[in-house]
Each structure stands twice: as structure tokens, then as C-alpha cells.
Amino acid sequence: MNEPRRTLSPRTRWAVPVVAAVAVGLAFAAPPLFASADDAGLPTISPEELAAQVASAEPSPLSGTVVYTARLGLPALPFGDVGGANPVALLGGSSTMRVWSDGGERSRIALLGATSEYSVVQDGPEAWTYSSTDDAVVHYSLSAADAARYDELTAQAEAGDLPVQGDLPTPEEAGRQAVGMARLTSTVTLDSQTEVAGRPAYQLVVTPTSDTTLVGRIVVAVDAETSTPLRVQVWSASDTKTPALEIGFTDVSFATPADSVLAFSAPAGASTREVVVPLPEVPAEAATETPDKELPEGVTVTGTGWDTVVEASGLDVAALVAGDPSAAASLPGVDKTFGSQGAADLYSEFVPEEGSGSPMGDLDTTALYDTLTTEVPEGRLLSSALLSVLVTDDGRVLVGAVPGATLQALAAQ
After folding, report:
1. Where are the domains of the chain?
2. What is the distance, to the nearest Å, from the Cα of residue 123 to the centroid of all Cα atoms in its chain?
3. How many Cα atoms within 13 Å fall on the side-chain side of residue 47?
4. Which CATH code fits 20-275?
5. 122-153 pLDDT, tens per residue?
6. Which of 145, 159, 86 is nearest to 117 (CA)?
7. What is the DSSP letter of 278?
8. What does pTM read for this prediction?
9. Using one digit for the tens of pLDDT, what is the confidence trace for 187-239?
10. Cα separation, 59 vs 48, whole angstroms
11. Residues 84-99: b if buried by 16+ CB within 10 A, e if exposed
12. Which of 209, 216, 204 shows the shortest CA–CA distance to 241?
């Protein structure tokens, strides 16, 4: 019997699965196991207590080096050395980032390559990006009117006067709300204490109860002093020895970075492009609970929990792969009217004019697509250690943390 098609509430659709946050929230569903004081000398704590500490901890100022490693089992890319400071490099191998934050609205992240660097600097409502490859700066800012509204919203948030209906949940209440969902999909325990970047840490282990998902387990190392996640490791169900994805600090300091580090200064000679970003209007009904709404036309969801599969239909995949902006505009859920001229202007900054080529620049996206996928009776299939993507010949795309055979069976229904 086919599984019923479901719809998602707006809140669910925006619940991006950030691994660290999910693991912390799910920790409330752990059985009554305790971490004992061992060689690390850390106090005994339960998963519930540790999760509450993480949820209630104030953001800490920090600086450090982060290493991201992907072992997804994808084919070797046909482009040689992509320089490291290129998002394509994140599909395989290791990438190094330097991060700085004041624990508030100021931060800097630098993705380091062998011969290049890509930096993102944020200071409240303003942000800058810099690519050393292009020697180009992009400055994102608000209009004067939106900047005033931003300041007003910030002041309201600090005073607790934002128009939110109902009480804001405490960490304990948030944990109780998470228990119901977590028990349906995962178990969470505490592993032995460890050390990350020279700092003692507890480890939360999230294990899916599904025996068909590609995800074996997720381990989050939490700093014992600041309750800051220091490392996230995601294992594939097919490999219990080496994580398929790993991101964590190799060194970290919780001192406030110098102002000169967090302030942006354009390198001499770099070109600068200004982009005014529209601050979205928040309708009054967004602050209250609303009934479930239908998914965008052409999008369906099957399965639950770790076995969820999202399917989009009516896509011109060849045009999307080639970077055709008109194909991108036709994606399900894309608002072609944008809602404001500012949003339309922002869209035009990222999407090339017709006939000007792919937004990926000189990257041969068609060759990349052909390399990462293999031909199957239904179309083309991307299989990795944690995720499968099936692109059918009739313009459907199915995505899930499940084996490719599961997507093929759903496509045939």
C-alpha cells in the first residue's frame, strides 16, 4: 500500500536540519543514562541536563580554526584542484575555515584554499563578501528605511516586546516539546567524555530508529565549560569506523576577538559592488499559530522521520543544470512576483541575464552533473553515503536520506 501524501506546516518547512541543533533538541528523548566523571574529570550529567545547558547558554565570543571533511563516496570531480576556497570543494576532501565572533551580531568566516580565500564578514544588518580569486568585494546593506525598522525590531527584541503570541518556552519546555517527535525517530544517549581542540567535552549520540535510512548516527561534542558544540560527526549506516561528514574545531579560544579582526576593510585595488537587500515585511499572522498549508504546487512528501522523501515535479532539469535563469524562476515555490522591487533587484544580482551563462561562472555544471550521477532506468541517480537524489526522465526530482533503490521504487509508483 502506498504511503499517504502529506503536507507540511510553514514551521516544519523552515525547520532546516542543522545537525548540532537537532542533536541538542533530541537529547531530551534520551533514556535515563548518565555520563560519569572519568579520566576527563567532568561532573556527572544526564542527557536532559546537558541539553538544557546547551539550550540556555548565551552565545560565546570565540575564534578558532574549523576543519570540514566530507567522505560521501562521490566520484572524483573532473576539474582537478578547485582551489579549496570554492563551494564545490566541500563535496569531498577537507576544507579549512577560520572563524571569529563576538557572540552577538559581529562575525567573520574565511574559507581557506591552497591559493585563495573566500571571506564573509557580518556586522549587524550589513555584510561583506570577498573573493581573492576575483579580487572582488560585495557589500550587502539595508535601505535607510529598512535600517530604521531593523533597529526598531532589535530594540523590541531586547525589551521582549515583539508581538509573539503565547509564552516563550523555557529550555525545559522546549525539551518536553521535542520528546514527542524524537521518540518516534531517534534515541539519544551520552557517549564517553572526550577532548576537542584541547577542551574537555561531553558527547551526545543521536541514533535513528529507522533501519532503512542511510544515516547511522550523529555525534555532537559539547564543550563542558561553555556548552558550545565543538564538533559534529555524521556516520553512514554502511560505515561504522569513519564519519561521512565531520566539522569541528582544531583550536578555539573563547576570548572576544579584537575589533580590527571583526571590522571589514576592502583590500587595496579590489572592486566593490553594492547590493541593497530588502528587509521582508512580517505579516501580523506570522506571529501566531496558523493551520497547516499546502506545499508548493508540484511538491509532495512521503515517509516520516529519517525516511522522508521530498519529490518535485515538472522541472526542466537540463536547463537547471545548465544554469538557465528562466528554469530557476520556474522552480516550485518560487514567487515570480517577488513581492517588492527590492527583492527583484536582489534576485537580479545573483541570476545572470539571459544568454550570459551559468551563475556558477566557468564551472562546467553539465560535466559535474554527469560525473556525480549514474544512469538508471528512471533517469539519473546520485548516490552518496548520506543522501540519494533521483532525477527522472519525466522531470521529477526525488531526494531523501534513503537508498537510491527506495527513490526508484517511489518514482515507479
Report:
1. 20-275, 308-411
2. 21
3. 25
4. 2.50.20.10
5. 998 899 989 888 888 999 988 888 888 888 87
6. 86
7. P
8. 0.73
9. 878 889 999 999 999 998 888 999 999 999 988 898 999 988 899 899 999 99
10. 20
11. bbbeebbebeebbbbb
12. 216
